[in-house]
Prior knowledge:
The chain has 19 helices and 14 strands.
Amino acid sequence: MSASILVVEDERAIQDSLAWCLRTDGHEVRTAGDGEEAMAIMAGQDFDVVISDIIMPGASGLDLLRKARTLHPRTLVVLITAYATVETAVEALREGASDYVLKPFKFDDLRFRVQQLLEHRAAFQESAQFRRAVENAAADRSLLGESAAMLAVRTQVARTGPAVSNVLITGESGTGKELVARAIHAASPRRGQPFVPINCGAIPESLLESQLFGHVKGAFTSAVQASPGLFAAADHGTVFLDEIGEMPVHLQVKLLRVIEEKQVWAVGSTKPIRVDIRIIASTNRDLAKEVEAGRFRGDLFYRLNVVHIALPPLREHREDIPLLADHFMREFNLKLGRRVRGIDRDALRALMAYPWKGNVRELEHVIESAMILSDGEVLTIGDLPRCVVGDSVPRNESLRELNRQSERQHIMAVLAQTQFDKRKAARILGISLASLYRKLDERRISDLPLQD
Length: 452
């Protein structure tokens, strides 16, 4: 992946060597010897990446960073510092730096970081058009994601929306079943009509029938006036029966009758009311097994399960986490009045590694919590809840040590992916084979059963 890169370094030897390495990787490179020269160059040219020393005569690297954020907000800025202090790194990240490198540094390490930043940005740029389309459409944020699993869900929604058939949505809690139901309704000819969500597990069993089908005045002690019920209120629209597996069996019989006869009988009434509704149901249970156990009627199951959309848990499409996190950050920036611009590398790794038993809803709550507790413009691993970070990343360690641990974990993951083929692993990591050998030795993982 080639890019336009500006290297700003007052030490000519480092400037020339770094420019040569980057050109070898196929990048278009310009150089500057100080901050003022770099600012003049940036005024006339947009760069994908700016790599700059922090301490230079005249304008500093932080001054250059601020200028870059003003002129070209999408430019990635990597700062180089000889002072390995947490304060320097934190200030750089708060000002909007994409990464920082400590002197003395290895050129292969810097090349690897640049490549990772470019790949990460490319993933977001490729999805930008889709994000805008989804956000401006009636389909809600549940449809965000570019994994194969979410592409399949969006395809099913697009094909199912215009149909008249009933739909059963299954998936774990927090996967966005109601949001997908709303997207189906929005893609249907009924989109201008009511969408009525009903949580079958939240309404007391004694009230559920009258809530669904209505009642006449005097039908029971507290029925002081008639109520048409939610099914009648949804006439010509869509009824969403959330957690349909919680519905009592005796009400399942009545729901089946509504589906078959397209009319409802209010409690205490002797006359049915015609209704034209589409039913979308959801559950986190395996309804086929519930049928076998006698807890759910088979005939109702087959009536609802005309079209089946299975939502994947977040742990099965982790590649969508950066996109979802970016969406939630922008959402909570508006809600909380914040200006958070991103997540640093270690925090993103922690999010990618977490099992997410609460799925997308849990990720949303974690991002909201982190943005409330953070005092910077970049979310760091220290802003995340302890349960997400885990014991593998102690909070009393230096940023340098955390980077070493993250790099070790990433190298081991790539080696496992390539079945410990070092040449293939080096290509994926974007470093030479010699550099990989050195890292294996430095990170004390050279004794693994590797292949050349």
